[in-house]
Amino acid sequence: MRVLVTGGAGYIGSVAVDSLIADGHEVAVFDNLYMGHRAAVNEKAQFVQGDLANKSEIDALMSDFKPDSIMHFAAYSLVGESVENPFKYLGDNTLNGLNLLQSAVENGVERFILSSTANLFDEPEQIPISEKENLVPGSPYGESKFFLERSLHWMHKTKGLRYAALRYFNAAGCTKVRGEDHDPETHLIPLVLQVALGQREKIMMFGADYETPDGTCVRDYIHVEDLAQAHILALKALTKNEVLHYNLGNGNGFSVKEVVETVREVTGHPVPAEVAPRRAGDPAILIADSSKIRDELGWQPKYPDLKPIIESAWAWHSANPTGYEG
Is 303 an active-site residue? Predict the structure, then answer.
């Protein structure tokens, strides 16, 4: 297939590009490099630096590359920032996504895979969280993804566009050549690894009095390579299926303390940690029920345990302590 990957210079998108190319697909990457890195793009992919805010740039790439499928990763994705600056998310994420959708429909794209979010489930009634759970976005960021899911619904109804919405929980880990390099960094595992690398004095654990086994929040971590494989399976499934919705996690929850202890074990560094007050809006436990994609598409994560996820991240970060700039 000919696959256009927006945000293909970013953390998850770059790994998906590698997986697509390894699977024999032709790939074009469209990225404004706001959060992505040119060095993260596979040399076998066509790269175009452009902005989804400019539909004419999208149309030009569509005309040149003629994709039959799109994987849409590009988006602002910081939940906290979206609360502080909601128009950036309700505006740019949705308008840019609509530009891409309109160009896709106008240029005959057959399949569209949306990088969605677990932030659609702000107050789940059941844990683990299945696709049957009520969609209640937990932030303007989550709302922007919900809007795009609904837009895809209507593009399917009115234009016949086949689509998959893949709702991630906590992406983590690295491959041998692709890593997590954000500025600012907000994800727990790379933040703890920065302490091990001596780049950060200590890690703060927000709340230790939750109703969990050790009092700290429990989250579902999924290796970025397993995420990419889910996209490949969804892409192939859309040749036979018209609409797919899947929650993606490994189904195992790990606490903040477990992450810190595992980093200590893997790196051999002490990693000072302190307990801070709870952050507003942090649920005690968020774990995905991914049985639907396992049953329907045969998806099987290669990294179901926390230690190998952190080992893969430590290997990349210790080899690239300054990220892609190094």
Answer: no
Q: How far apart are CA 147 and CA 3, in angstroms?
A: 23
Total Cβ atoms within 10 A of residue 30? 28
Domain ranges (residues) in the chain: 2-171+221-248, 174-219+252-287+295-325
Prior bond of 128 cis (ω within 30°): yes
Under a CB-based contact definition with an 8 Å cutoff, are residues 234 and 113 in contact? yes
Instruction: Provide the token pair at 173.
Output: 């880990």
Report whether pLDDT(178) > 90. Answer: yes
In the chain, the N- to C-terminal Cα span, in Å, equals 34
Domain 174-219+252-287+295-325 has CATH 3.30.365.10: no
Closest CA to 146 of 158, 137, 154: 137
Rounded alpha-carbon distances, angstroms, from residue 68 to 10, 23, 57, 167, 243: 22, 16, 18, 22, 16
What would the two tokens of residue 49 be? 């630096």
DSSP β-bridge partners for residue 222: 171
In angstroms, rounded to a whole number, what is the distance separating the alpha carbons of residues 203 and 195? 7
Apex 250 CA angle, 249 and 253, nearest 5 = 95
Instruction: Quick: pLDDT tens for 140-169.
Output: 999 999 999 999 999 999 999 999 999 998
Catalytic residue among 141, 163, 168, 221: 141
Tokens representing residue 100 in the block: 């891409």
Instruction: Name the phi and psi angles at 29, rounded to 5.
Output: -110, 130
* Longest alpha-carbon distance in the chain: 57
Kind and range of the H or E run holding 40: none
CATH architecture classification, 2-171+221-248: 3-Layer(aba) Sandwich (3.40)
Q: Give the tens place of pLDDT for each residue, 304-324.
A: 999 999 999 999 999 999 999
Burial 190-222 (b: 16+ CB within 10 A, else e): bbbbbbbbeebeebebebbebebeebbbbbbbb
Q: What is the DSSP string of 150-166?
A: HHHHHHHHHH--EEEEE
